[in-house]
Amino acid sequence: MQAARLHEYTDEMSEGLSIDDVDRPTVEGPTDVIVEVEGAGWCQTDNHIIEGMWAEYVPQPLPMTLGHENAGTVVGTGAEVDLVAEGDPVICHPVQTCGTCRPCRLGETMYCENDAFNGLTTDGGFAEYLHTSERSVIPLPAGVEPIDIAPHADAGITAYHAAKKAISDLNPGDHAVVIGVGGLGHIGLQCLDAMSAARITAVDLKDSALELADGYGADHLINPSEADVRAELDGITDGKGAAQVLDFVGADVTTEYAPDITAAGGDHHIIGYGGHIHEPAQALVNGEFSFVGNIVGRYAELQELVSLVEQDDVDLHTSRFDLGEINMVAEKLERREIDGRAVITP
Ligand code: NAD
Ligand code: ZN
Q: Is-contact 303 154, C-beta < 8 A?
């Protein structure tokens, strides 16, 4: 089968991955599931992986097939698999968990001590077939097509995970801010809008992203290349700041907003990454705000997100590309030419 594989780290996105002929994965263990991939979202994390940004955090055996936002149809199952059968449409949580470590017992999928992460530590879904496990797949409800839901496997669940933490501290009258309305952000905004009464301000450098935000529930829009984010939010929030900030960019310039735009006691959620946090310790003491880390989301949260999709509360804005166009997609994302999410159709 064909698979888009990373052989060595590079900053040159035009030649990041190569399309190789590799063996089709087969059922080996009793809980294995093989999925014919119908859609696989291209995430900015794929650009980061190609650049080698994950090499010091996780083991990455190269060459490796990337792709962690996968959905498709089950074509093979191990002897003990009950949850799904051949022909079932599924969305694939990117992490295969062991089920027996303490984090797994607590439902903390992302902290599993024996995990494998498609497209990050093991082969992913930019290929015709994906090897995963029963613990990682979620059967799709009738009427939800794999190709339409694929980006929720990572962009969606990550945005949902952060939004769910945020809404527990968002009361009517509060303000929330979404920084970066791209693949993750356009979902995070809709999750906030569906689950809280807070007023939401969207911040993005692209007018096309702000137009999307306008249609997806944002009450206020700010383009930092045209307006002062701090001054605008000061006006919008009557000087109080935003109770919850979801930062889907995570650059120095966006983490630096925190002391000025976050309300006392509020949170600045780090979801995007690449930059640093350099604030005086005193700034966190003075405003008692927190920086909160976010890594993907739990299996159970992906089930919840599928429910939001089924009841039409969360839409996906996507464009589709062939496997052979994958490096072009990587370059387009780098140049901010993708609105919403690009989906590869292997
Ligand atoms: P994307 O390129 O689709 O979206 C980023 C958006 O941010 C774009 O609309 C862009 O115009 C906007 N933007 C860029 N710089 C900005 C700035 N300074 N101010 C305002 N807006 C700005 O990217 P994505 O795929 O949505 O990923 C976003 C980030 O989240 C990436 O860093 C990615 O690696 C990360 N990510 C994190 C997790 C996690 O588990 N925490 C999971 C997936 C992706
Ligand atoms: Zn585990």
A: no
The Å distance, Cα 99 to ligand 1 centre, comes to 31
Structural domain range at position 74: 2-154+296-345
- What digits encode the pLDDT tens for the residues 38-83? 999 999 999 999 999 999 999 999 999 999 999 999 999 999 999 9
Tell me the residue type at 194. A
Residues 179 and 74 in one domain: no
pLDDT tens, position by position, 218-237 = 999 999 999 999 999 999 99
Rounded to the nearest angstrom, the distance between the alpha carbon of 28 and the centre of ligand 1 is: 37
- Are 150 and 7 in the same domain? yes
Find the ligand nearest to 221 CA: 1
| Residue among 13, 42, 43 to mutate when testing ligand 1 (max atoms within 8 A of CB) | 43
pLDDT tier at 249 (50, 70, 90 boundaries)?
Answer: very high
Residue 168: exposed, middle, or buried by beta-carbon count in 10 A (0-12, 13-18, 19+)? exposed
Is pTM beyond 0.90? Reply is: yes
Domain count, the chain: 2
Question: Is residue 303 within 8 Å of 138, Cβ to Cβ?
Answer: yes
What CATH number is attached to the domain comprising 176? 3.40.50.720
